[in-house]
Amino acid sequence: MPQDYLIKMECSECHRVNYYSRKNKKIIKERLQLKKFCRWCKKHQLHKETK
């Protein structure tokens, strides 16, 4: 069974946690960065993985 970890995705503009996702840390070493919709900014922003 793979080692999936729950990660938080934070908006780069307003710094609010909007999304949660899973990631295998053994395969993907660097932090995720995805462009997703922020409901507080009301537009698509870059969301980065937080600790």
Number of DSSP-assigned strands: 4
Which term fits the overall shape?
elongated
Helix content: under 10%
Biggest sheet character: 4 strands, antiparallel
Overall average residue pLDDT: 93
Class computed from helices, strands and strand pairing: mainly beta
Radius of gyration: 12 Å
* H-E string: EEEE
Strand order of the largest sheet: 2-1-4-3
Provide the descriptors you would attach to this structure in a database record.
mainly beta; 0% helix; single chain; 51 residues
Description:
The chain has a domain at 1-27. It is built from no helices and four strands. It has strands at 4-11, 17-24, 33-38, 43-50. β1 (4-11) and β2 (17-24) form a beta hairpin. The mean pLDDT is 93.
Which SSEs are present, and which pair or pack?
Blueprint: E1 4-11, E2 17-24, E3 33-38, E4 43-50
Antiparallel strand pairs: 1-2, 1-4, 3-4
Summarize the structure.
This protein has 51 residues and is mainly β. 0% of the residues lie in helices and 59% in strands.
